[in-house]
Amino acid sequence: MTKTLSDLGLNVSRETLGKLERFASLFQKWARAINLVAPSTKESLWERHIADSAQIFKLAPESKHWIDLGSGGGFPGVITAILLSDQGDGWVDLVESNHKKAGFLRVALNETGARAAVHPIRIEEAQKKLVNCDAISARALADLDQLLVFAAPWAERNPSLRCYFHKGRDYLGEIDKARGRWHFDLVIHQSAIEADSVILELANIRRIGQPASGAE
Ligand SMILES: C[S@@+](CC[C@H](N)C(=O)[O-])C[C@H]1O[C@@H](n2cnc3c(N)ncnc32)[C@H](O)[C@@H]1O
């Protein structure tokens, strides 16, 4: 059965639903041209990508400024931005180094009025350019250890930063590996969409051997 946003406990306005529908049809139109993985049906686009992305917004409704790393075709960052617009505030910075995908993201933001900006740069550059945020998201980008390397500069600048990473069935191995180099508090949320997937919520991230923020 296809999971909808209301199955996730997310009740959005008619206007926001319209923006999500607009985004879905743009995504389907552009997918082949810019080499995005196009879901085989409209239902699977809604469940496997839109509802899957919306889960993180549900986990962190108080986060107002997000950075989405490796946004690709807009998951989860554009969905977060559209859902934030339902609340009338908040912002998402989308970091995507592929210029064709960044071009699509720009069109999608223009046509949906989502509260976000596209940065067609590498994450390593964004670490210097984008100074602060409350939360970081990433899906299908890298293993957990590499995601922590990406997130570390923002965690250093904001001790209350939280990260939300979608992960598939190998997540326990990734956590083990990352624990060898990093301290972090972790909550594992079972995905409401995929039986063997999770969303990892991390806080208090610091490299082993590095003093906690504020420590002498
Ligand atoms: C597999 S796709 C996932 C896209 C999207 N997050 C999703 O779940 O559908 C990974 C994306 O990250 C981008 N990417 C990979 N490494 C990057 C880097 N160092 N800086 C910026 N973007 C990067 C790629 O161009 C690609 O679009």
UniProtKB/TrEMBL annotation:
Q: Which NCBIfam families match?
A: rsmG_gidB
Q: Name one GO cellular component term.
A: cytosol
Q: Which SUPFAM superfamilies match?
A: S-adenosyl-L-methionine-dependent methyltransferases (SSF53335)
Where is it chiefly localized?
A: cytoplasm
The UniProt catalytic activity note for this protein reads:
guanosine(527) in 16S rRNA + S-adenosyl-L-methionine = N(7)-methylguanosine(527) in 16S rRNA + S-adenosyl-L-homocysteine
The protein's UniProt keywords, in alphabetical order, are: Cytoplasm, Methyltransferase, rRNA processing, S-adenosyl-L-methionine, Transferase
Q: What is the protein name for this chain?
A: Ribosomal RNA small subunit methyltransferase G
Kindly indicate whether the keyword Transferase belongs to this entry.
yes
Enzyme class per UniProt: transferase
EC code(s) of this entry = 2.1.1.170
List residues binding S-adenosyl-L-methionine: 70, 75, 123-124, 139
Pfam families, alphabetized: GidB
The entry's function note states: Specifically methylates the N7 position of guanine in position 527 of 16S rRNA.
User: Is Cell inner membrane among the key words of this record?
Assistant: no
* UniProt subcellular location: Cytoplasm
| Alphabetized Gene3D superfamilies for the sequence | Vaccinia Virus protein VP39
Taxonomic placement: Bacteria, Pseudomonadati, Pseudomonadota, Alphaproteobacteria, Hyphomicrobiales
Domain of life of the organism encoding this protein: Bacteria
Q: Which family does it belong to?
A: Belongs to the methyltransferase superfamily. RNA methyltransferase RsmG family.
Recorded GO terms, molecular function? rRNA (guanine-N7-)-methyltransferase activity
